[in-house]
Amino acid sequence: MRIILLGMPGAGKGTQAQIIEEELAIANVSTGAILREVSKSKSDLGQKVQSYVNSGQLVPDEIIIEMLVQRISKDDCNNGFILDGFPRNIEQAKSLDQAGVSIDLVIYLKILEEQIIERMSGRRIHLASGRSYHTTFNPPKVDGKDDLTGEELVQRSDDKPDVIKKRLEVYFNETEPMLDFYKNKDIQFYEIDASEPVKAVTEKILKIIN
Ligand code: ADP
Ligand code: AMP
């Protein structure tokens, strides 16, 4: 099963991908998490990636497409994968076709902009694993600590009001037009209401998959 999760930043893609990864035993591939890991490095590439991520812009296609293709060619993707954060523009969507990667299902998590701000401003993540929490809607068992490792949770450097604004602008200009690319493609496309609580959204996704 090869699934693409689409939706505005903060719609809940990472949260749902984490759950589906466990439910279906498929790999959870988050380009945002990959890039945050790369941006920790002091190398030229790390610093370059960091400057794009921290300013809310998309990392150039030639960098991210290669990283993604390499990532999904790893053994843990043999059973399938769920893509969170890729593709983010039409060029990236076409690159999957060009690389001969077939997709079974596209699920679009639909949500209003007003809710996004609330979700992103309360988001806390475990940097090493990419696990995502929310101070109110999806709190960790122990305040400020990752449920599995007990390590510190952090606020993402791009979850600040001015960067959130930029990310939404990029989403509307570059990512949203890509929805039509998939709607017009011979591929299963489902739109679900992502404004409901985490569990309700998961149930809808699992119903589609099953
Ligand atoms: P994305 O990967 O789409 O950017 P996340 O999965 O990181 O979004 O979710 C953004 C924030 O909203 C996180 O803090 C997460 O805990 C929270 N969240 C995710 N899904 C829901 C939901 N259905 N209801 C309320 N909060 C949610
Ligand atoms: P995310 O974790 O999906 O919210 O992504 C965080 C940031 O990583 C984005 O704002 C971009 O700067 C970068 N990013 C993630 N995925 C991509 C992608 N597919 N193409 C370009 N940049 C990306």
Walkthrough of the structure:
With 210 residues, this protein is α/β, with parallel strands linked by helices. It has a single domain (2-209), classed as P-loop containing nucleotide triphosphate hydrolases (Rossmann fold), CATH 3.40.50. Helix content is 45%, strand content 15%. It is built from 9 helices and 7 strands; from the N terminus they run E-H-E-H-H-H-E-H-E-H-E-E-H-H-E-H. It has helices at 13-24, 31-38, 44-54, 61-72, 90-98, 113-121, 161-175, 178-183, 198-209, and strands at residues 2-7, 27-30, 81-84, 105-110, 123-125, 132-134, 188-193. The strands form 2 sheets. The chain has a 5-stranded parallel sheet with strand order 2-3-1-4-7, with helices on both faces. Strand 5 (123-125) and strand 6 form a beta hairpin. Helix 2 (31-38) crosses helix 3. The longest helix has 15 residues, at 161-175. The model has no long low-confidence stretch (mean pLDDT 95). The site of adenosine-5'-diphosphate has 22 residues, from helix 1, helix 6, strand 6 and helix 9. Adenosine-5'-diphosphate binds next to helix 1, helix 6, strand 6 and helix 9.
